[in-house]
Amino acid sequence: MKEVRKRAKELMEGYCKVCPICNGKACAGEVPGMGGLGTGSSFMNNVQALATLRFNMRLVHDCEAPSTATEVLGLKLAMPVLAAPIGGISFNMGGKITEEDYAEAVLGGCVDKGVIGCSGDGVPPFIHESGFTAIQALGGAGIPFVKPWEDKELFEKLDKAAATGAPVIGMDIDAAGLVTLRLMGRPVGPKTVAKLKDIIAHVPARFVIKGIMTADDAKRAVDAGAAGIVISNHGGRVLDHTPGTAEVLASVADAVKGQIAILADGGVRTGGDVLKMLALGADAVMVGRPVAIAALGGGREGVGKYLDQLRGELLQAMILTGCQDVASAGRHILFQP
After folding, report:
1. Cis peptide before 32 (omega within 30 of 0)
2. Out of 3.20.20.70, 1.10.10.10, 3.40.1390.10, 3.40.50.970, which CATH number does the structure's domain 70-324 have?
3. What are residue 284's DSSP bridge partners?
4. Would you say 230 and 286 are in contact if contact means Cβ atoms under 8 Å apart?
5. b or e along 177-213 (b: 16 or more beta carbons within 10 Å of the residue's beta carbon)?
6. DSSP label at 326?
7. What's the pLDDT at 177?
8. Helix axes 126-137, 151-163, angle to 10 degrees
9. What is the pLDDT of residue 337?
10. In the Cβ-directed half-sphere of 88, how many Cα atoms lie within 13 Å?
11. 228-231 and 261-264: which strand pairing?
């Protein structure tokens, strides 16, 4: 991973510093780029919210070989991890590799390790086209995400997403108002429950809504008929001064756990972070920037190496907190002063 990160830093010069600790401080305001919007506080809050959580270390138990396997949204995963939908290599990451190579690296690297990657959307069209092509080439092994466009573009892209064979399709509703899209004059916006019902009825696959940050919105997603939600503030790239996702996850889980699949992203860097999100109520976790860096620095193999590292860290954290399997990770493993 040292070599992968070194190579990524060279390729992403001017767009991402590939900091030893990816916390949003050095790249605040760098949007486009890999930073957080404005002061960067939303990005920083994601990382800080996880950092403040501490584990109860337990070793008097028989949990020697935990199972990281799980099933979410009908997808069997070797561990509760998905690669988050990220696109726009040219204006966010420096463009030293193609969008097609990036999509193949992320999605293929995930398949190699028994998990699932998501494809991004944006402007120009080759962003979503590259992801859709990669998913189709992998036999539908991926989750294509589309942004909350106005009807004509939205439904056209949803049809193309369905044609990839993917069993799950998502919409990152948190992209409403995204700076890069606003600069390009592209119409995106929030959706009502009624509109979400229309969208979900149109899609012949399980539907996931990414960008939920309150229990009320989670309940609305349930009412709309979504199969899953992603607790996300879009990596801190759309609204300054939001709480970290780990700060709101427990309240969302309390409101809708068992009614809908709950995924979470934002600030996840290690296997320990994955376990913390599970403890707060997530069924699985999405990882964004670290996977992007691995893909830039090492291609498909680099993504695989990062996922191997993540799983090793997760296993260690599970053993040291007494978690026999993913379902065992409850709030009792987190220290409460």
Report:
1. yes
2. 3.20.20.70
3. 263
4. yes
5. ebebbeeeeeebeebeeeebeebbeebebbbbbbbbb
6. G
7. 74
8. 20
9. 87
10. 17
11. parallel
CA–CA gap between residue 173 and residue 260 (Å, rounded): 17
Torsion, CA 52, CA 12, CA 120, CA 78, rounded to 10: -60
Beta bridge mates, 144: 119
Task: Say which residues have a Cβ less than 8 Å from residue 30's Cβ, sequence separation at least 6.
Answer: 15
Domain regions of the chain by residue span: 70-324
Please provide the DSSP assignment of 118-185 as one string.
EE---SSTHHHHHHHHHHHHTTS-SEEEE--B-HHHHHHHHHHHHHTT-SEEEEEGGGTT-HHHHHTT
Q: What are phi and psi of 37, to 5 degrees?
A: -65, 145
Report the chain (337 residues): mean pLDDT per 10 consecutive residues: 96 96 96 94 98 97 96 98 95 94 98 98 93 98 96 95 98 84 78 98 98 98 98 96 98 98 98 98 98 98 98 98 97 95
Q: What is the pLDDT of residue 187?
A: 80
Task: Say if CB 39 and CB 19 are below 8 A apart.
Answer: no
Judged by DSSP in three states, 255 sits in helix
